[in-house]
């Protein structure tokens, strides 16, 4: 068999075969089922706005051209009714024998299927029941659909099908269309808030020769031109800090990051983050910015700071994320969860004993900071509902963070947690190039020892710090996580095209 032999055609359902036969017939009759365009004069939303409150059985005298996908088609004798949908809404189309004549009315009945795109020209009227309608005097198929839409009563309900065929999901599920617009409004709000506060938006490389800025496993690739191994970025941090060194005192990026760490209800290997840095800010500065930014995003995307989440019992609960948010040290949070005190003086042995008592699994090579972090993730993070800033993590698990100004055993770092998931993190940035070199050297030794999540030494970044970076605060917020927080949905619903295993 030749390598160029085309793959066999998939088996067609009866409906798909009928639609292809219609397509062939239309072409044989000289009808172009995929024309270059149609003389549309208005969107459906604009049409509805102009004629809101129209009395029943009214003729407006206004003639329009509208386009949309046929989502409902009711065939009767001398009068047919259809609903068409464009990106802005739905409107009823009426097709009568008197207005179209027998040939064009019969063509609608025989040629048009659910899912087809059509263009309709005619007068704007209201039906006897008061339904805003376009009384068609001409129409055309603008794109023939060769596959039937899902059952109009059941819709597309299978979660896997909704993810794999998002285009169908958007056609038939109003909730998915709302999510798309909610996400768009949220991302726009984030950008506008940052611009309004004087931050400069930039773009940094996605392909990097050295991965850094987070403890995560990278994706690797290869550039043929230079014969080099490259990494998809796990974070833009080290490049944004170079810009702060260069004098860009308030900088941000809404970026795509890639981490080779699996996928679940709150993780996608490719995700969107806001990362920002402010000279002469610190982790308290970034705390206030983060709270105000997310609350403004809620107002812009939802209309209020009230969010709705479905509990384990299936009940929907409302939560107001307005106002101040709790700020708790990591030690205090773990102490509350255990019912026993945990302090900066607690030893590795004491923390390990507490973990064993609480049923938190540990690895034997972990140091004190990693054990404390594991206690926090198991006992605190996943049980947090309302937005809470947990601050002052151990320095040894915060390699890019300035040591706390009162106690160097902890770092000036917070994590924002809401509804059981981390939303973001912020630091008072470590700008001492000597200390940063020591910490990255320690990380690189871990990486050389087989720790796939450890950072490696970036000499150019360290060289940049040696030109002096001003005291700064930095933050990273997961945009996908913010959408989950605002909508109560999982990441596969808030991301348009999450990565899934190949399938039909």
Give a brief rundown of this model:
Pfam families: tRNA-synt_2, tRNA_anti-codon. With 504 residues, this protein is an alpha+beta fold. It has 16 helices and 18 strands.
How would you describe this protein?
One of its GO terms (biological process) is lysyl-tRNA aminoacylation. An eight-stranded mixed sheet has the order 6-10-11-18-17-16-15-14, with helices on both faces. The chain has a five-stranded mixed β-barrel with strand order 1-2-3-5-4. Helix 7 (174-196) packs across helix 9 and helix 11 (348-358) runs parallel beside helix 12 (368-379). By secondary structure, the chain is α+β, with helices and mostly antiparallel strands. It has two domains: 16-143, Nucleic acid-binding proteins (OB fold (Dihydrolipoamide Acetyltransferase, E2P)); 172-325 and 386-494, Bira Bifunctional Protein, Domain 2 (BirA Bifunctional Protein, domain 2, 2-Layer Sandwich), CATH 3.30.930. 34% of the residues lie in helices and 25% in strands. Strand 4 (117-126) and strand 5 (132-143) form a beta hairpin. Mean pLDDT is 93; it is low at 1-5.
């Amino acid at each position: 068999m030749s390598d160029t032999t085309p793959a066999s055609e998939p088996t067609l359902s009866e409906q798909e075969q009928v639609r292809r036969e219609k397509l062939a017939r239309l072409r044989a009759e000289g009808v172009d089922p995929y024309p270059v365009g149609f003389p549309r004069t208005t969107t459906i939303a604009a049409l509805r706005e102009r004629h809101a409150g129209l009395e029943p059985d009214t003729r407006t005298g206004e003639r329009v051209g509208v386009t949309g996908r046929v989502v409902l088609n009711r065939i009767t004798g001398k009068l047919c009714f259809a609903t068409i949908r464009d990106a802005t809404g739905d409107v009823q189309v009426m097709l009568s024998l008197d207005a179209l004549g027998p040939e064009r009315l019969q063509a609608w009945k025989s040629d048009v299927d659910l899912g087809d795109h059509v263009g309709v020209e005619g007068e704007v009227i209201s039906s006897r029941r008061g339904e805003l309608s376009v009384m068609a005097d001409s129409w055309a198929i603008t794109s023939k659909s060769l596959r039937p839409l899902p059952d109009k009563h059941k819709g597309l309900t299978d979660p896997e099908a909704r993810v794999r065929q998002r285009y169908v999901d958007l056609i038939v599920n109003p909730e998915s269309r709302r999510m798309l617009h909610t996400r768009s409004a949220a991302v726009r709000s984030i950008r506008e808030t940052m611009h309004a506060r004087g931050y400069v938006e930039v773009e940094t490389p996605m392909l990097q020769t050295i991965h850094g800025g987070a403890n995560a496993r990278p994706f690797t690739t290869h550039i043929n031109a230079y014969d080099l191994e490259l990494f998809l970025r796990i974070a833009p941090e080290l490049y944004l800090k170079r810009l702060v060194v260069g004098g860009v005192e308030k900088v941000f990026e809404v970026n795509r990051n890639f981490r080779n760490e699996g996928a679940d209800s709150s993780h996608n290997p490719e995700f969107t983050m806001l990362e920002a840095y402010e000279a002469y800010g610190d982790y308290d500065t970034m705390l206030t910015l983060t709270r105000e930014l997310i609350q403004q995003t809620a107002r812009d995307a939802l209309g209020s700071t009230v969010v709705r989440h479905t509990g384990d019992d299936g009940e929907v609960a409302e939560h107001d994320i307005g106002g101040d948010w709790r700020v708790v040290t990591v030690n205090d949070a773990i102490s509350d969860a255990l019912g026993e005190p945990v302090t900066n003086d607690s030893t590795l042995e004491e923390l390990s004993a507490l973990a064993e008592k609480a049923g938190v699994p540990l690895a034997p090579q972990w140091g004190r900071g990693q054990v404390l972090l594991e206690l926090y993730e198991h006992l605190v993070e996943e049980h947090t509902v309302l937005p809470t800033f947990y601050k002052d993590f151990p320095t040894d698990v915060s390699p890019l963070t300035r040591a706390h100004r009162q106690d160097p055993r902890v770092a000036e770092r917070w994590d924002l947690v809401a509804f059981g998931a981390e939303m973001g993190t912020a630091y008072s940035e470590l700008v001492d190039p000597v200390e940063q070199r020591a910490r990255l050297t320690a990380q690189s030794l871990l990486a050389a020892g087989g720790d796939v999540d450890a950072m490696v030494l970036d000499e150019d970044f360290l060289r940049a710090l040696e030109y002096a970076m001003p005291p700064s605060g930095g933050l990273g917020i997961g945009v996908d996580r913010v959408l989950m927080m605002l909508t109560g949905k999982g990441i596969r619903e808030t991301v348009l095209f999450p990565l899934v295993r190949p399938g039909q």
